[in-house]
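As promised in the previous annual report, we have extended the structural survey to additional targets. Below is the entry for ROK family protein.
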Amino acid sequence: MRALGPGAPVLAFDVGGTDIKSALFDADGTALGLRRTPTPIVEGDRTQALLERLDVLAAELRTTHPEVVPQAVGLVVPGIVDADAGIGIFASNLGWHDAPLRDLASARLGLPVAFDHDVRAASWAERRLGGARDYADAVVLVIGTGIAGALLVGGVPYTAGGYAGEIGHSPIADGPVCACGARGCLEAVASAGAIARRYREATGITPEGAKDVIARAAAGDEVAAEIWNSALDALTMSLAQLTAVVAPQAVVIGGGLSRAGGALFDELRSRLAARLSFHRIPVLVPAQLSGNAGLLGAALRARELT
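The corresponding structure token record, generated without further manual editing, is:
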């Protein structure tokens, strides 16, 4: 994992629907005790279960590294997040609604807590340390099982009370129905999960993920080619809309689909150029911080409190 550089020691937690990444960052910015643990799935008050898990993880990190005394905590979570108010507005897979997570975590851990959305925090890490560091106006797009996004405007995240950046749920077609309940969301057509699902539904064959569908398309599989082409068209449409409205200097793309390399980046570059005219076409940049961007972003946010 990339080091943060010198600064205050902090605890950092990146909470996901499946697991929690946790680490203690020392004064040099080195991550100590980095680990993944399952996100608690319980009946009843899942917020309380999460706080209990964070408390245990923090105690373990402090016990293992007693020489490092954290001064703050960074906590990032998925869903709709109002970072300024410290509230997890809604997270369907984690079962909370209007939960004052920042204040609850601070009371539980005995430290000030910086609270943010996981992808916004990842975008901040990419801005400070990774692919977006040369661009004040950028879109960070994470394409994996779903599609998540974040906007950087003037070098800082644009949040709109937690509702900005839901690029995966921007409508680009009349269908199919998305898991969110809307129709034609980008995520339902162009995420890695959607690409694999659509191929399975069309052929009865279960591919080994989106990369397998892309490989089949390159080998002449017409069904795979049609699905991959429609995913590229959907991504192009979404990026073209963002370019026309926000005019980012760069789009930083991470997540599993970013590992498709030229099959993704070269195609998007040529398709964007063909669709747009006078617009400033953004540079397409691979994310550099991989799956640790959210945790690094959490640590960076925590240091801002010290």
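The CA atoms of residues 38 and 100 lie 22 Å apart. The chain has two domains: 10-123+291-303, 134-287. These points will be discussed at the next consortium meeting with the crystallography subgroup.
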